[in-house]
Structures are given as C-alpha cells and as structure tokens.
Amino acid sequence: MSLKFxxxxxxxxxxxxxxxxxxxxxxxxxxxKQYRTDxxxxxxxxxxxxxxxxxxxxxxxSKFEQAFIAVASRKGRLAGENGKGLRALERDNEAxxxxxxxxxxxxxxxxxxxxxxxx
Length: 119
Prior knowledge:
By secondary structure, the chain is α+β, with helices and mostly antiparallel strands. Helices cover about 50% and strands about 20% of the residues. It has helices spanning about 10-15, 60-75, 85-119, and strands spanning about 5, 25-30, 30-35, 40-45, 50-55, 80. The protein has a 6-stranded antiparallel β-sheet, with helices on one face. A hairpin with a 4-residue loop joins β4 (about 40-45) and β5 (about 50-55). It is elongated, with a radius of gyration of 19 Å.
C-alpha cells in the first residue's frame, strides 16, 4: 500500500516522536527525510509529494510501521497514493484479505481431495 502524509516536517516528526524518540532523522535527496530507529526500522518521506516508504526487516520494523500508521491516521494525516482516504484503503485491504482467505481455503480443500484420490 502506497501512502502519502499530509503535513509538514514538524508534524511528521511529532507523529514519529509518539512512537520512537531514540532514532535519528537525516536529509535525503530530492527534499526527502529519513528516520531510522535503533531497532532497524526506516521511514522515508518526501516533502513535495508526501510519499512515505517504510523499510526494514523483522518484527520491530513491522511494529514501527503499524504504530506510525495508527498515530498518523488518528490525526487524519494519511491518504493513499491516489488520494483515497485511509478508511477506504482499509476497506479495500479487508476485501483482499477475504479473497485471499477464500483462495487458501479452496486450496486446502483441493489438496485434501487430491491426497484422498491418491490413496
């Protein structure tokens, strides 16, 4: 999911500070800013476009991303790349998760039928 942050540098710093205050901000090319946590999570943000990109591996990076999305969405600061609000994106994600669950269930049924037919 591609996200855009609606707000300035100070606002995004405040959102991040609610989650993690031990990381480091640095400048990127093309008016970008980067925040790196001690645990290895990375948030890249470009002021002109508002685009946000999360990086990092493991549970710490995933938790940081989820926490940031929760904090920023409560403040009404996040939107999808195409301008969709976060609520609309969450509905889309729920629909996709339901479709994936259906496919996984059907796959499991077919696998059981296949294994029975081989016996």
